[in-house]
Amino acid sequence: MKTSTLLLAGSVTFNLVLAAFFFSGPSAPPAPAPVVAAPRPAPKPTAPGPETWAALRTDDLAAQRDRLRAEGFPPDLVRAIVAAQLSERFADRRKALDAAQRDQPFWKNPVPDPARLADHRALAKEQSAALKALLGADPDNPALANLRRQLPNFSDERLEQLAAIRERYDEQRQALYGPARGALTPEENEKIRALEKAQLAEFATVLTPAEFEDYNLRASNVANNLRYTLSAFDVTESEFRALYRLQSEFEDTHPPTYGSLPADQARARSEAQKKLQADIRSALGPDRAKEYERATDYDYRQSTQLVGRLGLAPETANQLYTLRQETLPRGIAIQGNRDLSPADRAAQLATLNTEVQTKITAVLGPSGYEAYKSYGGSWLQSLRPPTPRPGG
Questions:
Q1: How far apart (Å, rounded) are the C-alpha atoms in residues 161 and 202?
Q2: Is 110 exposed, middle or buried (0-12, 13-18, 19+ CB in 10 A)?
Q3: Nearest by Cα to 331 from 267, 380, 266
Q4: What does the DSSP 8-state code read for residue 44?
Q5: Which helix (H) or strand (E) holds 256?
Q6: Tens digits of per-residue pLDDT, 100-136?
Q7: How far apart are CA 238 and CA 362, in angstroms?
Q8: How far, rounded to the nearest angstrom, does the alpha carbon of residue 380 sit from its chain's CA centroid?
Q9: Angle between the 221-229 and 237-253 helix axes, to the nearest 10 degrees?
């Protein structure tokens, strides 16, 4: 800032002049060897006091912005100061909206008021628009920053267009999600899907075909869900593109469902899923398809995370998966053996359970075994001997 910078510069200059006078006076005898003074740390600038802020502050926010810029305040600090002052102007209106919520008895679960939530969104939008009018788009806007990370090859102009479109649709989605408690109704889910399609369609109007494909591969819901599913699969770019195409085609005709489906739709979806899996095996080839099936198994993904937390080699998760694949058929065979008495069945399951526990403990340690039962080891439940019935 100009004021503090001048003070600092003057202070340093004064110290240098004083040092020169002190060490090179005219009556000083010549020294046998040159004496080098230890460097003195530069004094720290003094923070502006209340009087400085009083001189800079004004209720005209545009003039406030210009004064701060003229004083050399960094852009992010200018934005923070102006945003804080702007927030003060909206504080009373925000408090008025929250008045009813403050009067809610603390012993009762607060029920969201759709009208109040809508008013809050409108107020936040108005405040955001006022800040943008004063300072332009926020370079650190979370939505814009997220798009910039996802789409590093896109220009700022393109990213701002996408962020503006997404913001409009987010408001509509929030209007549906805001008052909802628990699961959405089928009608609300259909509205959410319609908004997703409309948003993508609008994206397509501002992007070139190549950009639109790039967006879908990097930032669409299908791609994001697919990346999560493949988190334990060392997928290549070409494999990801192939899997994305298959998954996208499947979801075009069979979008994600919430709740049960009518019998005919459930059968159609089940058949489509079987075809999807067959197409994936064909696209990946036999060996990679086996790795894919293992990596997309929920328990396997859980165990890879546990192995990582324990600092063990990634191959450890494969050992646990192989043990499961070898052990489960044995447990199923014992459970289904009608020639066994209940006591013999319980004894054989107990022996198998002890065997598996010993093997897993040898790999993960005792505490690791206990953690594995919750993270990837849900299948161990099937090896427990049945609990005797009272009086049985």
A1: 10
A2: exposed
A3: 380
A4: P
A5: none
A6: 677 777 686 666 677 777 788 788 888 988 998 999 8
A7: 38
A8: 32
A9: 120
